[in-house]
Amino acid sequence: MTAPKKLFIKTYGCQMNVYDSERMAEALGGQGYVETKTADDADMILLNTCHIREKAAEKVYSELGRFKGLKAEKPDLKIGVAGCVAQAEGEEIMRRQPLVDLVVGPQSYHRLPELEAKTRTGEKALDTDFPEEDKFEKLKSRPKAKRGPTAFLTVQEGCDKFCAFCVVPYTRGAEVSRPVDRILTEARDLVERGVREITLLGQNVNAYHGAGADGSDWSLAQLIWALDKVDGLERIRFTTSHPNDMTDDLIEAHGACAKLMPYLHLPVQSGSDKILKRMNRSHTAESYLRVIERIRAARPDILLSGDFIVGFPEETEADFQATLDLVEEVNYGYAYSFKYSTRPGTPAAERAQVDEAESSERLQRLQALITRQQRAIQDAMVGRDVSVLFEKPGRIDGQMVGKSDYLHSVHVRDAGKEIGEIARVRIVESVTNSLAGVILK
């Protein structure tokens, strides 16, 4: 028998890239590849890249440079670049780093087997098209191997919003939603393999409009209610959302669907209407706050998360203060904040930039406020009873670690539970970035 070839995938960026890496590994499994945790013993190395962070492309080139010695030792080693940097840079990657054998964009990774076969003949392989065929339909069924209790499931890709700072419409393309029946089939398959919680993914997931069995376009809320009927699926989450697509039926689902967890990531980016307009966000601070108000009316205990960009071109101290005011009013359980950095080809890249030191100082102030809110909300969980899905053993014998309904990490000593079990837990302590609890009998 031929020994299996080894595949090493390094994943950068968002949860969707994590999902994509899983599917790429499955696609190459048919070519005889099995995954390995180290690049040193790999027969193929794939970098699944993200273009969101600053100087993303340069970081990829730097990473590729580290493989020069390995390629010299193993001339048959195949090296590939996938994801959003691959889409943005295309054949420039091969020009700058001749050791790269294949480049594939996020919409074409279902073609990986034929691209890999091409590299075995000594050719370079490049595919950064936006093909008309459904890549998910072209991928083979997922293998039946046992999985952990949580999984990502991509339901929507691309974005039509064209925020002035964002490269997603250029690297992922226009909004496309998967048909309902294919999502349900994949969800049932994941549940059969041990998954109990699924997070639905999309660049703009609440703009989901996939074809339903009745021939009409279904909303994300309709999809969630269909998933609610899947036996063995206990928890549903979704990310990432746009405030303008928080429809009435989706807000209602947060209050009525028991499997939809009381956690929502809803980025706002800024509290200044002037900056929001310059970002092309198409909502105002006031309209965002009204959406939050309606969500909390439907589900009063919901934990909210957000995204913020500090130092966007033309942001003044007054604009930044409006962001602090909005954060104070919403009171976030989690939030992600970043200094603005230019993305070539986006409208904001051509504008006058805010002083770097000023942006850094603002970011520190914002993060200090967010940290205070996050810790206060976490501390307020002490004494409450929550549902915890156990995901892995802890560092101490007999300890188990899992996630609460609100996405807090919870560790329990002498839990007496297995991975994948859900139990009611009373929170007894709040420590840095996690909670401690005891099993309720």
Describe it.
The protein has a 6-stranded parallel sheet. By secondary structure, it is an alpha/beta fold. It has 15 helices and 19 strands. It has 3 domains: 5-127, Rossmann fold, CATH 3.40.50; 135-379, Alpha-Beta Horseshoe (pyruvate-formate lyase- activating enzyme); 385-439, Beta Barrel (OB fold (Dihydrolipoamide Acetyltransferase, E2P)). Helices cover 34% and strands 22% of the residues. The radius of gyration is 23 Å and the shape is globular.
Brief digest:
The protein has 441 residues and is an alpha/beta fold.
**Order of neighbouring strands in the sheet with most strands:** 2-1-3-4-5-6
**What is Rg?**
23 Å
Overall residue-averaged pLDDT value: 92
Q: Kindly provide the name of the CATH class of the largest domain.
A: Alpha Beta
Number of helices: 15
* Strand content bin: 15-25%
Secondary-structure content class = alpha/beta
CATH-wise, what's the superfamily of the largest domain?
A: tm_1862 like domain
Instruction: Predict the CATH topology of the largest domain.
Output: pyruvate-formate lyase- activating enzyme
| First-to-last CA distance | 52 Å
Give the total of beta strands. Answer: 19
Question: Outline, from the CA principal axes?
Answer: globular
Helix content: 25-40%
Q: Tell me the domain tally.
A: 3
CATH architecture of the largest domain: Alpha-Beta Horseshoe
Indicate the low-confidence ranges by residue numbers.
none
Largest sheet: 6 strands, parallel
